[in-house]
Amino acid sequence: xxxxxxxxxxxxxxxxMDGSYSNIILGKLLNKYELSNKDRALTTExxxxxxxxKYTIDKILSYFIKKDLKALDKEVLNILRLTIYQVKYLDKxxxxxxxxxxxxxxxxxxxxxxxxxxNGVIRNYLRNKNVDFVNSPxxxxxxCFEYSFEPWMVNMFIKQYTYxxxxxxxxxxxxxxxVSVRVNCLKxxxxxxxxxxxxxxxxxxxxxxxxxxxSISKGKNIEDNKLFVDGYITVQDESxxxxxxxxxxxxGMTVLDLCSAPGGKTTHISELLNNSGKVMSFDLHENKxxxxxxxxxxxxxxxxxxxxxxxxxxxxxxxxxxxxxxxDVPCSGFGIIRKKPEIKWNKTSKELKDIVKIQRNIxxxxxxxxxxxxxxxxxxxxxxKRENEENIQWFLQTYPQFKVVELxxxxxxxxxxxxxxxxxILPNKNMDAFFICKLKKMGR
Length: 444
Description:
This protein has 18 helices and 13 strands. The protein is an alpha/beta fold. The strands form two sheets. Strands 5, 6, 7, 8, 9, 10, 11, 12 and 13 form a nine-stranded mixed sheet that branches. A four-stranded antiparallel sheet has the order 2-3-1-4. The protein is globular, with a radius of gyration of 23 Å. The N and C termini lie far apart (70 Å).
């Protein structure tokens, strides 16, 4: 029978060696192997924690391993990483258990020589846990080690947000996210679904800012629950839940979602339209549109039309047909590091320059598709101001017929109202980081 740490290792290998997405591959392997609920939880903890703190863990390993970590066998390196994570960050895991499991797995997969190496490195760390692994007078080096982020990313946050806000962002991005679900108003009412979830043994509370949200802190996988399977709820972060209600949706409207998959915001739009009008779901990839279809079918939604399209390329047949256009554009994704911690390691500063051009092409097309007096809702799940405030500034200068409509999501300390009228949501235990701007096309 496979052990939880072996499953964790397999996930880490796929994420850190093959570039797989942590949430997707973890879900697949947890479904593949028959682990107890306790072991599933431990596997999940080890996977996300090891990826989240990889920078710090590698600094520690580099202290004890004098050759470049890149020269190590990659699987052996991942065994070391997941073991250091357990010893340093998990109080509930006894040190001897973590070491013994690491040695056993290494011997099984890589031989006795590799297992002796792993045993030596880990025991050396246990004898020297209080060493100054940073060994640098620079504040930036200390911050990077404490919060486990690359220096270029920390410097970007400090430059764009000030030192204190940057530290708050780093802390927020390392929070363990709660699961939040959105109640489907087409099928049930909030209080009834809330009571059913409680009766099913979930520890829940009302949403942090969204009236349709229920926050789940404890319970079995919600996607296995009948309420999810039958379409009464859908899993969505509360930040993303703010988007559709911000669009001033009225029954019978035509709404374009230019970057639709996997469909959380698209289906929310349909729910708020009471399944009326027309929602046009676009995505570059046909297989991703199938995700939107699956979500819509589960939720009982019938007003969505699906079209494969590259939203960076203008299509004249959609000119001025939309009352509302949603552009939840592709972005660097820094806001969802809580859920996809590998974003810390698989993004580069060069990629940020390339993504802005894509975003602006989509914005340029959206302004042609929306009717006069219509609304474009621009959103990203990133904290990079070049993709957020600077894009809005560019858009307003290029298309002066638009103005920003101010938004109001309450007075929670992580919700920042920017001067130009847009909103930045900073990450915390309840919400991913997000950016939202509402743009109205004024009449001639």
